Amino acid sequence: MTKMNRRTLRIVLEAVAALILGLVLLIGAGIYALSTGPVSVSALTPILEEALNDGSGPYKVTVEDTKIVWGGWDRAVDVVASNVRVQEPDKPALAVLQEVSVGLSFKALIGGEVRLTTLELLRPSLTLVRDPDGRIALAVGDLPGVTDSEGDAPAPPERPNAAWMPVPAPDEDALLPQSVLDALTSGVSENSLMGGLQRFSMVQAEIRIIDRALGETLWLHSAGLDFVRSDNGLDARLVGSLETPTENALIGASLFADPGADRIDVSVAFDTLDTNLPIRYMPDLVFYLPDMTISGEAGASFDLRGKLKRVHADLDSAAGGIKASAEIGDTLPEARLEAEFDAFDTAVWLGGLYDAEKAVSYLPRVPISGTMTADITPDGLPRALSADLTSSVGSFSLTTSPPEETEFAEVLSGRLAFSDVNPRKAAQTAPALGMLTGTDIALDGVLTFSLTPDGELQSSALTMSFGKGRVAIPDAFALPPLKRGRLSARTGGPDDPVVIEELFLDFDAPSITASAILTPTESGADISLNGLALDLEMGQLSEFWPAELAPNPREWVLENIPKGSVPQAGIALSASLPGYDPDQLVLKTLSGSIRLNDADVHYLRPLEPVVGVDGFATFGPSRFDIDVERGTVNDARLTGGRIEITDLDIGKEKIDIALNIDTPLQSALTLLDTDPFNYISKIGLEAGGITGQARTQVRFRFPLLADLNAEEVEYEADAVVSGLSMYRADLDATIASEEANLVLRPGRMDVTGNVTVDGIPASAVWRENFSEVGDRLRYLSVTSIADIEALGRFGLSLGDYASGRVGIGVNYAEYRSGSSSLALTANLSEAVLAIPPLAWRKESGQSSDLFLQAVFRPDGSARIENLVLDGKNDHRIEGSADLVAGLNDIAAARIVRLKLGDTDVSGTVSKTDGTYRVDLNGPQLDIAPFLDEEEEEKAAEEEVLTPRISLTGRFQRMTAGPDRQVSDADLTVDASGERIDRLSLSGFVGDGRRIDVDYVPNERGGKNLNVLAEDTGLALSVADVTGRLEGGTLQIQGFSDGPDAPLRGHIDIRNFRVREAPRLAKLLEVISVTGILSALSGDGIDFNLLSADFSVTDETIEISDGAARGSSIGITFQGTVDRLQDTLKLNGDVAVSGIFSQTLGQIPLIDMLVGDGLIGAAYSMTGPLDDPSVSVNPLSVIAPGFLRKVFEGGGVPQDTETGRDPTNEQHGN
Questions:
Q1: Which contacts qualify for 318-322: CB closer than 8 Å, 24 or more apart?
Q2: Which DSSP state fits 1178?
Q3: Is 643 helix (H, G, I), strand (E, B) or coil?
Q4: Cβ contacts of residue 884 below 8 Å, gap of 6+?
Q5: Which of 40, 220, 526, 1006 could be cross-linked to 240 through a Cys-Cys bond (beta carbons 3.0 to 4.6 Å apart)?
Q6: Domain boundaries, the chain
């Protein structure tokens, strides 16, 4: 640099320094002056008014005063116009501004012009009103009468005296009114007062916004508004404190208009803003903004025509942080979207959206971080998508390929990869996924998809693998720990089925493979599923069978099949899922199968379970069936069976169990004797003493109820019993059967078969009724052919009454009332029958049938309703009887016919006051058996019984053997055991000869006896006393003085003949009276009279004063007859008279010698009755006069007391 140049530079610098120093001194003096208060420059007021009223509009501006004010170091010196009024002529002021700071162009002032460069309203008040019709008006200044309600507010601009400035409305499809847009985009011009305005501001403004459409008022306090205009455009800023009806918020807004770039950028920043505020003004935001407080910044870019070009937001909220931007294409909604998430909780964000509750319920409330981009077509469809997101529930990566042209349209293909996704973590905060809270596994997989141009799903495919963990649904089921698994699935469009091609779960043991199809419907979806389980243990079944799926059969299977192996199980089902809600699942079809090995099956507790069961189960929507192949119950072998559970589809499940069992009979009976049946105990058997083998088909039916009653169990059994052997103590016999059939039905049991009872063959039917229905409780039918002698061991000993073989049939029944019945039939043709007391006998081969019907009453009594012993023409017994309790006595009987031998009668028997009253009548009664001497002898030796019998009878004939009968007999007998208390008999013997017998009690407790017979010989022949006496009349009279006193009496027989009397013949033979002996054996010897006194006891007959006199012989006799020994001891005299004596008396000397007789002897007779010994005293052979008493002294005196009760002259009854 030259010296000249350096000198010039120094001069300039010195000048500048002097100028700066002067300005500093000047400014300092000014500042000092302004700091003491405003400096009025009234001279500027008219100039300023003139500048502001440039005549370009209808408004007039007036300024009251102009001052220069020190505004602080941040504002320096302000030119402030006070009380500035803007109004139209003759109208209220549109604006009254207390203070307006203006900036003037220095350049214009040098040129003598006033031009504004800045305009700043200090502490203004503004009111913005939106009417319900959408018009907006602005009022500036403190105008009285402005309220929030429409009725109190000043009139709108079109009304008279209005002080409101209308805000221009935008043109159709324009963002801003054209006049506002022109003001924002016009450049700086120095050709007018306002054209050079570079900045417009409001400081400390109070802005009230009255929205009459919403009925609310907002305030913007301490607002600062700053518009800066340059050649590049307009830059505007707004800050303030927004007061809403609910809260306050600090907001800041900016706007930048760049005409050269054809762009307007708008942004708003805020803290703690309630989203309800913007939603109220823009209702469509309810679908995008949640109901919460947010902070951050949001903005948009437009072209000058208002077309949206870009939007962006950077927000923080309770949901987390999100940054999003969208570059808008030529036509909305074409755009490219980008988002960045910072610990963003989608569920919280969506939870605040309108009508998003259902979607939120499926989203876990966990923070998500990552990025996402999307290209949206003009149709609002995605063209390209990408995302990389991470969270505590897993990581996700989404990519798409560019759309491809297909035959029909463009297709967008994509791929979503995920890893380490944990359903349990996701479900913990997602209510709709609550069922997954027990699924704690890691999922890794890939989802590929393709979308149609309209955004609908065209196809998708999922492949997924499972890690080690647990799978469970709370309160439903929990699977055992999972070892590994995989899933592959695919689907088409939104209306196409979702196909699960394979679901494989490996629990180490078991493993499960399933496939399924889910078909969308109007109400939800239809599901079809097929599954297969391998190597499952029954103890694990509860973990794989959901409790809600057929709960009743599940409960039965789990409780009653607690143990067993399932090598394979399959299932196929279809169901509807309304609203995709698992709780609304409706099962439509169900089928499947289960293979069982070595299982324990409780078919009916408390019965013993079947163990070691092999079988195959099938099931459907309404039934669950198990075909049992084999198993055992204790020592019983199960050879087959079936278990059916039905009515699963109507909620009234029932079970039907049928089992084939081969078992020892004892085990089968023990089974039948357990609760709730106790059948064996009910019929009085004990299973312990029964042997044999049973092939049994048992069946149980009952409803599947937790509180099952025994009455609801139906039980059936069909058994074939072989090798039966059973000892019956009541029979003291062993019952055996080669084969018998047992049928058990609800409430009844039937047993049929051929048996032997201690070797006696029989065919038996046994029926038991255990139910409450029907009157008959027990029925027993037995048919057999057996030897009668063999029946004696069963209490049917017939002794001398029957022998031989008999065919017998017995039907016995017991009834609910306590009564029972017996029907007995017997073929006695091969048997020998005998009734010794009646001397009746039927030989083998002679036809005879027995039929008996009896009813046994609850009190122990019985009625024989019908008894028939039919021997055709030979014999017949027919009648009925009533037996007393204990069956040891007869209460009454009716004899329709009793035909045995020569007896043919009918009658009745009754018992009153301990006496049997027998009334008989009929053609003939044979009493020969009762007169048998041998039987009488036995009766005498046996113990005397004491039944009291009163017999009355009327018979055409009463016989005692051949040629021994009483005609038209009336008989009365009262007896006490073997003792006759009364006997009366009247009738006729022979050709009408009457006989009367009366043996009746007397007053002394003894008996009177009277016997009258018109023909003694016939009477004694009928009585079988002797047949050697003919004719004669008989009279016997006797009495006893007490029950044990002897019977004393007298017998008188007159005018009779004796022939062939062996004892008399023996006597005559001893005394060698041959002539009379010849007469005795020939025509007989006539007697005029026989009389004797007697005294009879049970042991002896005492005879005294006995004599018999005839024309040729006379006899006296006295002595004793021993009834017990059948011996006699008699003595007396015998004399021969008549023609023999007269002949001898004509001989001289002899006549003097013999006197009244010639032949006579004293004799004695002792020994057995049939053949006594006779001895004669020879010294008395010839004794004069000794026979007088024989022929004259004998006879019955007219007034004898020997044979007559002096107090009772009664004869007969």
A1: 318/292, 318/293, 318/345, 318/348, 319/290, 319/292, 319/344, 319/345, 319/346, 319/348, 319/349, 319/352, 320/344, 320/345, 320/348, 320/349, 320/367, 320/368, 322/349
A2: G
A3: strand
A4: 860, 861, 890, 891, 911
A5: 220
A6: 30-243, 774-901, 903-989, 1029-1193
Reduced 3-state DSSP string for 1143-1165: HHHCCCCHHHHHCCCCEEEEEEE
Q: Which amino acid would we find at residue 58?
A: P
3-class DSSP assignment, residue 538 = helix
Residues in the chain: 1213
Q: Which of 71, 47, 72 is nearest to 61 (CA)?
A: 47
Nearest to 1159 by CA among 1176, 1183, 1143: 1183
Residues in CB range of 72: below 8 A, 6 or more apart: none
> Are 722 and 692 a contacting pair, CB within 8 Å?
yes
Which residue, chain included where needed, has tokens 């004898």?
A: 1200
For residue 96, what are the contacts with CB-CB under 8 A and spacing of at least 6? Answer: 83, 84, 85, 86, 140, 141, 142, 143
- C-alpha span between 576 and 583 (Å, rounded): 11
Q: How many CB atoms lie within 10 A of CB 575?
A: 17
Strand partners, 628: 615, 641
Of 32-41, 869-878, 999-1008, where does mean pLDDT reach its minimum?
32-41
Residue 1120's beta-bridge partner residues? 1102, 1129
Angle of helix 1062-1070 relative to helix 1074-1081, nearest 10 degrees, comes to 160
Please, how many CA atoms are within 13 Å of residue 221, restricted to the half-sphere of its CB?
A: 7
**1185: pLDDT strictly greater than 50:** no
Q: For residues 143 and 125, give the distance between their C-alpha atoms in angstroms, rounded to a whole number.
A: 9
Asked if omega into 480 is within 30° of 0 (cis), the reply is: no
How far from 968 is each of 852, 903, 959, 971, 1032, CA to CA, in Å?
33, 15, 11, 10, 21
pLDDT at 1030: 83
**Which contiguous run of DSSP H or E holds residue 199?**
strand 199-211
Determine the Cα–Cα distance for residues 470 and 436; give it in Å rounded to an integer. 10
For residue 1068, give the nearest of 1081, 1087, 1054 by alpha carbon: 1081
Tokens 């009658």 sit at which residue? 907
Q: pLDDT (tens digit, 9 = 90+) per residue, 454-508? A: 767 888 999 999 888 888 777 766 778 889 999 999 998 878 899 999 999 998 8
- Read off the tokens for 421: 């996704």
CB-CB contact of 748 with 770 (8 Å): yes
What DSSP string runs through 33-96? HHHTS-EE-TTHHHHHHHHH--SSSS-EEE-SEEEEEE--TTT-EEEEEEEEEEE-TTS-EEEE
pLDDT score, position 1210? 38
- Is it the case that residue 909 has pLDDT exceeding 90? yes
Residue whose pair of structure tokens reads 């139910």 in the numeric block: 771
Q: How far is CA 1116 from CA 426, 637, 770, 799, 1089, in A?
A: 144, 98, 83, 49, 12
Determine the Cα–Cα distance for residues 588 and 621; give it in Å rounded to an integer.
7
Based on C-alpha coordinates, what's the Rg of the chain? 72
Q: Which residue has the higher pLDDT, 701 or 731?
A: 701
Bridge partners (DSSP) listed for residue 882: 863, 892
pTM, to two decimals: 0.53
Cα distances from 1022 to residues 507, 959, 966, 1169, 1197, in angstroms, run: 112, 8, 8, 20, 29
| Summary mean pLDDT of the chain | 78
User: Which DSSP category does 436 fall into?
Assistant: G
- Residue 335 above 80 pLDDT? yes
Look up residue 458 and give its amino acid: Q
Quote the CA–CA distance of 420 and 442 in Å, as a whole number: 5
Taking phi over 0 as left and psi of -120 to 50 as alpha, with beta for the rest, 50 belongs to alpha
- Residue 884 class from Cβ within 10 Å (0-12 exposed, 13-18 middle, 19+ buried)? middle
H/E run at residue 881: strand 876-883
